[in-house]
Design brief:
Layout lengths: L2 E6 L8 E6 L7 E10 L2 H7 L16 E8 L11 E4 L2 E3 L5 H4 L10 E2 L18 E5 L4 E2 L6 H4 L5 H11 L7 E5 L5 H10 L3 E6 L5 H6 L4 E4 L5 H4 L4 E6 L7 H5 L2 E9 L11 H5 L4 E4 L5 H14 L5 E4 L4 H9 L6 E5 L4
Parallel strand pairs: 10-11, 10-13, 11-12, 13-14, 14-15, 16-17
Antiparallel strand pairs: 1-2, 3-4, 3-8, 3-17, 4-5, 5-9, 6-7
Helix pairs in contact: 4-5, 4-10
Length: 345
């Protein structure tokens, strides 16, 4: 069985260390790929540090993978050796329930996540901070040739997390869209919204990223640190996508929606949020959430990014820099996604 190098961690306060893991030989419907790059998502940090609940250690995180196919199973005709592929947050589902049939595999009761889960073989799933990955061919995504692999890896989480709500809630020419937050998720949301043709604004804490926001396609930029910002923006937007995990004044943000507008949350604040229902009822406004997308829509997102020249802005790091990178992500020092060069593992 293939042996892969990996980086694992043994406790919420520990440090990442080298490890060897075994990947299974590909079954008839599986592929193996050499994982070239692995993005660091803030959810990796939440998971590893047990901020979302207890986990089993040691753990190898990572659900933003991009690499090159090295083996294909006997029944696989979708991919061949040498193809560019990626894997995102989940690697399997039942394939036959109503959700899977409807292209929402991420919500399947039997969905299997890329790490911190249990595979069909009964073994823990081991994530992308590693050099090899075995996966069902139907859950691998084809990466367009126009997107460099390092910049493609974060699209498997940050890209689809923002593409899905922008598509569902109608970002398009003639619509005004605001992206709240300009981090790993937000910087992709701005690019995708602008490419969809919407008039796109950024609402951030400060103006420190304004030049980047405008370079990514925003035509407006607002800072919450400036008094009266949300009051000035009342009834301004058809759609607001909040990418932040910080606590927000949801009532004030809802007030920035036009009649019939939608506020969609993709960030996961730690504490419960409250909202005054009259603020929704009074303007036929919508408060919604969004989580990832199915396989077909994720591939659609990659193709869209390839066609429009979109990619994550990344800082490529070595495996020895993972611990420091985690701290910098938490303190918002990354521009805009750290990606591990797995050759350094």
């Amino acid at each position: 069985m293939p042996i892969a190098r990996a980086r694992a961690i043994d406790s919420p306060t520990g440090s990442f260390h080298p490890a060897e893991i075994t990947r299974r030989e590909p079954g008839p419907t599986e592929i193996v790929f050499e994982n070239k790059f692995a993005g660091i998502c803030h959810s990796d940090i939440h998971t590893v540090r047990q901020e979302w609940g207890p986990i089993k250690y040691p753990i190898v995180p990572g659900h933003e993978l991009a690499g090159i196919v090295t083996q294909v199973g006997s029944a696989v005709d979708k991919y061949k050796v040498g193809d560019r592929v990626g894997v995102g947050c989940y690697i399997d589902s039942c394939g036959h329930c109503e959700l899977c049939a409807g292209g929402q595999e991420q919500f399947c009761e039997e969905a299997i996540y890329t790490y911190n889960d249990t595979g069909r073989d009964g073994l823990p799933t081991v994530g992308g901070y590693s050099t090899l990955f075995t996966v069902e061919a139907g859950y691998a995504l084809r990466i367009p040739d126009s997107i460099p692999l390092d910049a493609a890896a974060p699209l498997l989480c940050a890209g689809i997390t923002t593409y899905a709500p922008l598509k569902k809630w109608g970002a398009a020419p003639g619509k005004r869209v605001a992206i709240v937050g300009m981090g790993g998720l937000g910087h992709m949301g701005v690019q995708i919204s602008a490419a969809m043709g919407a008039e796109t604004a950024v609402i951030s804490q400060t103006r420190s990223k304004e030049a980047d926001g405008r370079r990514f396609g925003a035509t407006e930029y607002y800072a919450l640190s400036e008094p009266g910002t949300l009051k000035k923006l009342r009834k301004s937007f058809d759609l607001i996508v909040s990418t932040v995990s910080a606590e927000l004044d949801l009532d004030a943000m809802i007030g920035c929606l036009k009649v019939g507008g939608a506020l969609v949350n993709v960030g996961l604040p730690e504490h419960a949020s409250t909202v005054r229902l009259p603020n929704l009822v009074g303007g036929n406004r919508i408060l919604a959430g969004s989580q990832l997308a199915g396989v077909a829509e994720t591939q659609e997102m990659l193709d869209f990014c390839g066609e429009h020249g979109l990619a994550a802005q990344v800082e490529v790091i070595s495996a020895d820099e993972i611990d420091a990178a985690y701290d910098k992500v938490v303190s918002s020092q990354v521009r805009y996604r750290y990606v591990i060069d797995t050759s350094t593992i």
